Amino acid sequence: xxxxPRSVITVLSLSLFFIMGIVPALQALPLFTxxxxxxxxxxxxxxxxxxxxGASMPSHDANPLTFGASSPHFYAxxxxxxxxxxxxxxxxxxxxxxxxxxxxxNTFELVSFTRINTTDPALPWNVLGQAGDRRVYSNANGxxxxxxxxxxxxxxxxxxxxxxxxxxxxxxxxxxxxxxLGAWVGSIGSGAPQTGYGFGxxxxxxxxxxxxxxxxxxNFKIDLAMVGITSVVLPTQGLFDFxxxxxxxxxxxxxxxxxxxxxxxxxxxxxxxxxxTSSVPGGAAGDMNSVYINEIQQTPTGALPVGLxxxxxxxxxxxxxxxxxxxxxxxSLSSADFAKGPGDWRILFRPYHTAPWxxxxxxxxxxxxxxxxxxxxQQGEFAIASPLDETLPVEMSSFTAxxxxxxxxxxxxxxxxxxxxxxxLVYANTAASLNTALQLTPNxxxxxxxxxxxxxxxxxxxxxxxxxxxxWLEARSLDGSSQYYGPNIVKLSDPEDTPALPIxxxxxxxxxxxxxxxxxxxxxxxxxxxxxxxIYNVAGQLIKSFDLIQGSHELDWDGKDxxxxxxxxxxxxxxxTSPTASESxxxxxxxx
Length: 592
What we know:
Elements: E1 32-42, E2 48-51, E3 73-75, E4 79-81, E5 84-90, E6 101-105, E7 108-117, E8 131-146, E9 149-164, H1 168-172, E10 195-202, H2 209-212, E11 221-233, E12 238-248, E13 252-259, E14 263-267, E15 272-281, E16 290-297, E17 310-311, E18 315-320, E19 322-332, E20 346-350, E21 358-359, E22 363-367, E23 370-376, E24 380-386, E25 394-403, E26 409-418, E27 421-429, E28 438-439, E29 445-446, E30 455-459, E31 467-477, E32 482-492, E33 506-507, E34 519-525, E35 531-537, E36 542-548, E37 551-557, E38 570-577, E39 582-589
Antiparallel strand pairs: 1-4, 1-5, 1-12, 2-3, 4-7, 6-8, 7-8, 8-9, 9-10, 10-11, 11-12, 13-16, 14-15, 15-19, 16-18, 17-24, 18-24, 19-23, 20-21, 20-24, 22-23, 25-26, 26-30, 27-28, 27-29, 27-31, 31-32, 33-34, 34-37, 35-36, 35-38, 38-39
């Protein structure tokens, strides 16, 4: 990390970003690393942070954590921009060296702010020596260029950080531009270093396909790790230095924000509608009125309340720049989220990420697809849970999708066992959204209901246009409940561009490696040949296997064995065998 020749101090009052409580899982090896120098935080008219009011400055009540009419106020910066960004490392085959790479972002805007206790989040935020705040800066776009030519475009870029407020010693260093602070007595926060990270999306429509493909395994989501944040305090701005590491995302996130004082805000990508019943906007001018929603596509961590045994594989973060508010949030669900009926749904809430989940008792079940939480007056995390286990009478061994020799999308799935099953339905979409996917199978593909499992296949003969397609499989039981698998991604080419089948059978390196939640394994099976990919533990025991036919394959392994049980952290061997080839490689599973 570079050090500015000016006095470098860590202060939360002038911190850069906000994190709502989630901590990213283990990052993949960064594709790019940039040195970020003097990123500017400007326009200090955002949310109130604290007052210059302490034992040595009796302008109010000697407490900097209460707002006093006669005290000098400190406010958060509304925007973050500019700065020098230099590529110091790259790990892609598309560039010869880091000097060829540059990155550019436009302005980030403050969209969420809350005060926290950074020493113990369970305690009140306004404990002297422990206080801090959290912020989200978002709404930025950017691009990575090769020799000055834009190659990879990013959208919805969001930077997040949490930082403790400063200590007595740190505050006294500001006396060079505000002399009374030289005699400041007492610490506002712990003064610990800032921590942060970011994320965003690849804009596939305008990015170079070869560069966008670097993030295909993460559904074109990007992680922006901020390493070694340091801050420089100046009278009119905050300057921030850190290393920015860019990797395929580990956790899928869909974020958005909008502004209103009262009324309804729709967040369709987050499956949420927010109704602002009342609010008191924040900021020096009373103009901070944004609502921030982030849908985290991951099963919520932490124990569920007693009696609830199943939760959706996603949860939501709520933030805002209001000083206070009263909201109602409607969550949209489908059978992909819960197989059981809506009468079993329960809304859960926790004010911060490590807090225990509690049941939100003030709710309204609107219909079979919508449930609403009422009278929300604090920021935090929401999830939906059920008191019933959602176990289905089918164990899925594999579900794969590929382009066949006729340039059509073909699906194959293998079950380990079946009991009381109706059968299967196939869905497709041009986006990674099951809610708007088209059902390709007019009738259920009948299940064989064999205790030893069965094999099935389906070819999407009606999809012929070139493009990227997402496929899901619904396994439907006799009682009407369902389980969904996917999406699996297939890319169809124009007929004249259809690549020939592989001339040899080969196995490629798993990615990412090490991995936390999912590893993608690529294999090529030569024309006219069949193969098997097996995953083994270090003792040589078969964990899971996939049967492959001719063509190019991308297989996702979620770290579970053939029975659906989570495997332990460690080294695993994946082996491809066919009549003409036998190859083995290693990968490392590292659980949270």
